[in-house]
Design a protein that fits this description.
The structure holds two protein chains of two kinds.
Chain A (H helix, E strand, L loop, with lengths): L2 H11 L6 H11 L18 H31 L8 H33 L7 H10 L7 H15 L13 H12 L1 H4 L9 H4 L11 H6 L8 H6 L11 H13 L5 H23 L10 H4 L12 H8 L10 H21 L7 H35 L1
Chain B lengths: L5 H8 L15 H6 L4 H24 L9 H23 L1 H7 L1 H4 L5 H9 L6 H30 L32 H18 L7
Helix pairs in contact in B: 1-8, 3-4, 3-7, 3-8, 4-5, 8-9
The chains are: A mainly alpha, B mainly alpha.
Chain lengths: 393, 214
């Protein structure tokens, strides 16, 4: 007897009981369900919610694998005993530090999803599949696992379930989880220690190592020791999966090609970031700000380099495009994306304590997305009314 | 004979649960957010409001028939202001550190919606004894939520209760901290107070579904 039929039998056995949603979810997660629709005509489409989620996860896997190599690479580079990037030594650090993050993220998140499905008696939704993959990619590598577990339970319950579950949330759950970590445990989410494995435990000892990010160095007006190609390929410290701009661009092309991610949002976010960067460059060029200012370092970064440092590209491609929390109208998407990029760079420059603001900018625009949509729709209604009036006159 | 009639008992017990001023009437949220980062401040605030609301209700109820209705809000404000100044001066005299910590919030009891709300909704139409009981009941209901929120925020945010290190010493790394536990800084920020109040409302409404409004 195959796995599929035994799962099906289990499902039939528990039908109508409280545990039914859990078995249903396991069954549909692994196989197409046996049930067919019985009434009316239906359009059959291959891209159901599960398929959509899986495509995003496929786009994220390269970032994850790169992040695993990079975790070890940065660790040994900071220790002063560099190893090859694609070496077993580097990957081993990734296995022992990054994989547990993934496991905790999925384990805790899915447990809560199953729990809510059983209590509320609805089917388990696939909403957490992408969130669970995003979360390990946007946290520092040394984050204690229990903190991640607390944050994931907070994010899933307060960020999603209280609004009614998948598809009803206002805020991006992955970013809610990151925001919770950021405000609850700032010492583990910012500063110059957390971004490289081993830097926290060595802090204050004779063999202390630095885990400073490029943004952190810029914020202190310090010199940058990484080349532009390092930044582009991702051989820099940072959150686990956000360093490699090349792989993020591949992911973006994949998402746009499969029509899962909106090119309008991605493009307008980048344009928004560039515009804000240009404004700051203009301020520096005009001489309104001098080298002694604490904002000088970040403001004088050439505007296009803002895309290579920090997590603006990762946010634009994987976070801003979340179809639930983004604006829904085409014009709205462009406005929404533009402000994400614009505000991201604004926060990045004027927030010297924690020099990055992409997640805050996206959460802020998540809140405004329905408002933007409302005005776009009203504007369209007005335009059409006008057209009708001129016709009838 | 019982001390309180059944109707009078309801005046005290109702606001504690199914007619709670914070979780059901959604009054007095501002102070629930502002001063609940520590349990001690929550308790002092709860006691202060208990005094002001009970006394104020009695005074308003006594003079309810001679207040011209056009200027009743001003009269009510004067009564609250007098009582609040009393509380403020007592705190300054006997608990100076605490009064500095509570700073403007004692003064802001004047603007606490619960107080004006009870004056308007109850004291203006009922006798002094019943108004007194209503004041006690509502401020107990308010205090209950305040103390619950303060308890969780101080315990999880600072790892202390009333200033005692119940979870161990974060610097010496004792008890829980030895296991790598850390205080949750988010708990000390006001948004978390709102979320904790929300969770209490959630629990209350899932226990008593008749409270859920359409």
């Amino acid at each position: 007897m195959g796995l599929k039929s035994s799962l099906h039998q289990l499902k039939e056995k528990y039908k109508g009981t409280k545990m039914a949603p859990a078995f249903n979810a396991l069954h549909t997660f692994l196989y197409m369900p046996n049930e067919t629709t019985k009434h009316g005509t239906h359009i059959k489409a291959a891209d159901d919610l599960k398929r959509t989620m899986n495509i995003v996860i496929m786009a994220l896997v390269p970032c994850l694998i790169f992040g695993m190599f990079n975790a070890g690479f940065q660790h040994y580079a900071a220790l002063g005993t560099p190893v090859d990037f694609l070496s077993w030594d580097a990957f081993w650090i990734g296995i022992i530090k990054v994989l547990p993050l993934v496991a905790v993220s999925y384990g805790v998140g899915l447990a809560i999803e199953f729990l809510f499905a059983i209590i509320k008696g609805h089917e388990v939704e696939e909403g957490y599949l992408v969130t669970g993959m995003l979360v390990p990619l946007i946290v520092p590598v040394d984050l204690p696992l229990w903190m991640l577990a607390v944050a994931v339970s907070f994010g899933v319950v307060i960020g999603k379930e209280v609004f009614g579950g998948t598809g009803m949330n206002i805020l991006n759950p992955a970013l809610t989880i990151r925001a919770f970590l950021f405000f609850a445990y700032p010492t583990w989410m910012s500063g110059d220690k957390v971004w490289v494995h081993g830097a926290v435990e060595r802090a204050g000892t004779a063999d202390a190592i630095s885990g400073e990010t490029i943004l952190g160095s810029y914020a202190q007006n310090a010199d940058i020791s990484y080349s532009l190609s390092d930044m582009f390929f991702g051989f820099i410290p940072g959150s686990v999966g956000e360093t490699s701009k090349l792989l993020i661009i591949f992911g973006a092309l994949f998402l746009i090609f499969t029509k899962i991610g909106s090119w309008r949002i991605i493009l307008s976010t980048i344009v928004g970031a560039l515009v804000m960067g240009l404004i700051f460059n203009g301020v520096v060029d005009a001489g309104w700000i001098t080298g002694t200012s604490k904002f000088y370092g970040l403001m004088s970064v050439p505007f296009w380099q803002h895309l290579l440092i920090g997590s603006i590209l990762f946010g634009a491609v994987y976070m801003a495009t979340d179809p639930v929390t983004a604006a829904q109208t085409n014009k709205g998407k462009i406005i929404y994306g533009f402000f994400i990029g614009f505000i991201s760079i604004l926060i990045r420059v004027f927030n010297p304590a924690y020099p990055e603001g992409v997640f805050l900018a996206i959460l802020l625009m998540n809140v405004f997305a329905p408002t933007i949509d409302h005005y776009v729709v009203q504007g369209n209604v007005k335009k059409r009314m006008k057209r009708m009036q001129t016709k009838t006159v | 004979m019982a001390l309180l009639s059944k109707k009078d008992t309801k005046l005290i017990t109702d606001p504690l649960a199914d007619n709670n001023p914070i979780t059901i009437q959604v009054l007095g949220i501002c102070s629930a957010l502002a001063i609940t980062a520590e349990l001690k401040a929550s308790i002092v605030m709860a006691v202060s409001v208990l005094f002001v609301l009970a006394m104020g209700n009695v005074v308003i109820s006594l003079i309810r028939n001679i207040i011209p209705s056009k200027i009743r809000i001003i009269v009510q404000l004067t009564v609250v202001a007098a009582l609040v100044i009393l509380v403020d001066l007592v705190l300054k005299a006997y608990a100076y550190e605490l009064s500095k910590q509570l700073s403007v919030f004692v003064g802001l009891i004047i603007t606490n919606c619960i107080i004006m709300g009870r004056f308007e909704a109850f004291a203006l139409g009922n006798g002094p004894w019943r108004s007194f009981l209503d004041g006690i009941g509502n401020s107990l209901g308010y205090g209950l939520i305040l103390i619950a929120v303060g308890f969780f925020r101080e315990l999880l945010g600072s790892g202390t209760l009333l200033g005692f290190r119940v979870l161990g010493d974060p610097i010496e790394k004792t008890v829980l901290y030895a296991w790598g536990y850390e205080n949750n800084g988010f708990m000390l920020l006001s948004p978390m107070a709102l979320i904790v109040v929300g969770l209490i409302i959630w629990i209350q409404r899932s226990r008593n579904t008749s409270l859920i409004e359409e």
